[in-house]
Amino acid sequence: MFEGAMPALITPFTKDDRIDGEGLRRNIAFVEAGGVTGIVPCGTTGESATLSAAEHEEVIDIAVDCAKVPVLAGTGSNNTGEALQFTKHAADAGVDGALLISPYYNKPNPAGLLAHFTKIAEAVDIPIVLYNVPSRTGQDMPVEVITELAKVGNIVGIKEASGSLDKATRILENTVDEDFIVLSGDDGLTLPLMSIGGSGVISVTANIVPEKMSGMVDAALKGDYETARKFHYEMAPLIRALFLETNPIPVKKAAELAGFASGHVRLPLAPLADANTEKLAEELGKLGVLK
User: Which of 39, 166, 174, 189 has the smallest number of Cβ neighbours within 10 A?
Assistant: First the structure.
């Protein structure tokens, strides 16, 4: 269900700092027209850490209501009780699955990680995708923990964003007998990861050029690596520009420059520096996506 290219959606805000619901619907329609195979609201790119509980639920409700592709909703937290609440709401709302980041700040021991994810998975009947992103959480989820969690019936995969192809290889090796997928959490490493058995990407770049990211991933899934490489190198400069500063600062500016619903980033994030805005605009111009 979750293979392919899936944008980690930005959350557009109005000038008075509310969820721009109509803008979110337009953005979802745009990425769907670009060929994505699913959408991921309320992830890191969606500024989930600064959404209130009510806003978190609002964004998921909108996504489920309007999406024509599967919805993999971000429902993680460093608080197991809160993550459980978000995941139950998402399941009740009708999502197709939940994406759960490993608890940040707490740095739980292996037993804590196992208990956290197992408790949530056993409380719902929807697929669960783990999310390992050490640069955000301060902790690299051990391969041994991932391997054990892959045995839980409805834990079906992981978004792997450690930046290590060796780690991805070990996960794939250890879960070969399970119905378990590995998705890239790093846009620039998507093609290499797919070459060793990855199933796709949860992508920042797909917010802006969904047809190119979808084209690359689709070609790789078909084994057409010549076509996939063309897309990879075409997008590479934009991908680098989208990470000039902390995600989602650049991608929200890119969305604004391309004429999509965006709005500000919430504090403690601040707007993209002028020099980086110029670099980003240059790459968007090369791909013909400036408004």
Answer: 166
- Average predicted confidence (pLDDT) for the chain: 97
Is residue 90 scored above 90 in pLDDT?
yes
- What's the whole-model pTM score? 0.95
DSSP 104: T
Residue 41 binned pLDDT confidence (cut-offs 50, 70, 90):
very high
- Checking if the pLDDT of 17 tops 90, the result is yes
228's tokens: 């996939």
Identify the active-site residue in 88, 104, 159, 167: 159
Active site residue 131: yes
pLDDT recorded at residue 281: 98
- SS3 breakdown of the chain: % helix, strand, coil, rounded to 5? 50, 15, 40
Distance of CA 161 to the CA centre of its chain: 10
Q: How many domains does the chain have?
A: 1
User: Is 172 part of any domain?
Assistant: yes
Which of these is catalytic: 119, 131, 286, 291? 131
DSSP 206: G
* Res 1: pLDDT: 78
Residue 254 lies in a domain: no
Q: Is residue 79 part of a domain?
A: yes
Instruction: Give yes or no for a contact between 72 and 64, defined as CB atoms under 8 angstroms apart.
Output: no
205: domain CATH number is 3.20.20.70
Is there a catalytic annotation at residue 104? no
192: in domain: yes
